[in-house]
């Protein structure tokens, strides 16, 4: 039941979670995008993802009432329908695909999302029901298979006129519900064990601290500068995660 983590690894875990939670508290997204590829350098995604579902759900609970009135409910509802349908399919892949291949997939998704946002990918209007539903399907699949359902939804909101308070609020509520779905799907697949709860307990303190600090800085920090720093961090993490995966594959060859 013990986790194979020494003191330096535990300090790394705490630092990663604190940074990722700060981003989540500030922007409404980014926790899984930062924490999953970072923690996948220490543990297999099949162990990291269920623990992050548990802790992310608890951390977002206190933010939901604060942003409720700003949520773009029409798009969120259609996205959730797609995500609920696709998440179990993704979970089936999480338990079937080897860790190295999953790390490469995670890195590619994170890298593509960061580059698109960096290049200023933008929509002129908020997409309708069909695009929202398709975005939810893509998000649910990625959420179940890699614990990173954020990229399609982040692109949807932050490239459309809803970017800002409405986009942030919609993301917070969407991910809260998606975490509930993810917990149910991973539990049904037998991926939630005693080790999952132990890892979640280690993650929870720095996560709650980061969420609190990030939310306090939501208004005070320059959004443009913060956005660029987050995207640079995501790109660096994607490269590091892919590098470790290719190293593992080379060693296994």
Explain this structure.
The chain has 253 residues and is mainly alpha-helical. It has one domain. The protein has eleven helices and no strands. Helix 5 packs parallel to helix 7 and helix 6 runs parallel beside helix 8. The mean pLDDT is 81.
What's this model, at a glance?
By secondary structure, the chain is mainly α. It has helices at residues 7-27, 31-39, 45-60, 64-67, 73-94, 99-118, 129-146, 150-158, 165-188, 194-216, 223-252. Helix content is 77%, strand content 0%.
SS summary, helix count: 11
Number of domains: 1
Average pLDDT reading: 81
* Cα shape: globular
Largest β-sheet summary: none
Amount of helix = over 70%
Over all CA atoms, what is the radius of gyration? 17 Å
Q: Could you give the order of the helices and strands? A: HHHHHHHHHHH
Structural class by SSE content: mainly alpha
Low-confidence stretches: none
Total E-strand runs: 0
Oligomer type:
single chain
| Separation of the first and last Cα atoms | 30 Å
Percent of residues in beta strands? under 5%
Features:
253 residues; single chain; mainly alpha
Write the SSE topology:
Elements: H1 7-27, H2 31-39, H3 45-60, H4 64-67, H5 73-94, H6 99-118, H7 129-146, H8 150-158, H9 165-188, H10 194-216, H11 223-252
Helix pairs in contact: 1-2, 1-10, 2-3, 2-11, 3-9, 3-10, 5-7, 5-9, 6-8, 6-11, 7-8, 8-9
